[in-house]
Amino acid sequence: MAPAGSASFFRRAGVHWMALITLAMGFFTWTVFWPTLVPYEQLGPLGSLAQYMVKNHYSVLYNGYWIAWAIHAAEALYSFRLCSRSLFSQTNDDNSRAGTQSVHQVAACASNRCYPVNQYIQSHSFVTN
């Protein structure tokens, strides 16, 4: 794993994965809550599988849907707790004039001292000049 201040510590998920998961969960929702509206014959093998599951194993689909969302929610809560307690905190920027919301920036913490990310990276030699 990369050090906490390096640029490779956080990586954004690929767009294709986000699109695939969004479409899959959308189709899952569609088959669980509106199974009569799904055009199974137009979806090829996926439609045949979905139609079989709806007709013969609907309770598995229904429970699996809620389990998938529960796992997703637990993952999000765990990530939030992990980031807020261990490595990162938010510091206010002094741009909160005239009633505008202040800008937050992530700070990297090491040895109970927090720094703005760019200062942390420079002081820990993650970036070479």
Characterize this entry briefly.
The chain has 129 residues and is an alpha+beta fold. Helix content is 53%, strand content 12%. A hairpin with a 2-residue loop joins strand 2 (104-110) and strand 3 (113-116).
Structure description:
- One of its GO terms (cellular component) is membrane.
- Pfam families: TMEM254 (PF14934).
- Keywords: Membrane, Transmembrane, Transmembrane helix.
- It is found in: Membrane.
- It comes from Engystomops pustulosus (Tungara frog).
- By secondary structure, this protein is α+β, with helices and mostly antiparallel strands.
- Helix content is 53%, strand content 12%.
- It has a three-stranded antiparallel beta sheet with strand order 1-2-3.
- A hairpin with a 2-residue loop joins strand 2 and strand 3.
- Helix 2 packs across helix 3.
- The longest helix has 30 residues.
Q: Kindly report how far apart the N and C termini lie.
A: 23 Å
Strand order of the largest sheet: 1-2-3
Helix content: 40-55%
Strand content: 5-15%
Which H/E pattern describes the elements? HHHEEEH
What descriptive keywords fit this protein?
single chain; 129 residues; alpha+beta; three-stranded antiparallel beta sheet; 4 helices; elongated
Secondary structure layout plus pairing:
Layout: H1 15-33, H2 44-56, H3 58-87, E1 88-92, E2 104-110, E3 113-116, H4 117-123
Antiparallel strand pairs: 1-2, 2-3
Main location: membrane
Subcellular location: Membrane
Protein name: Transmembrane protein 254
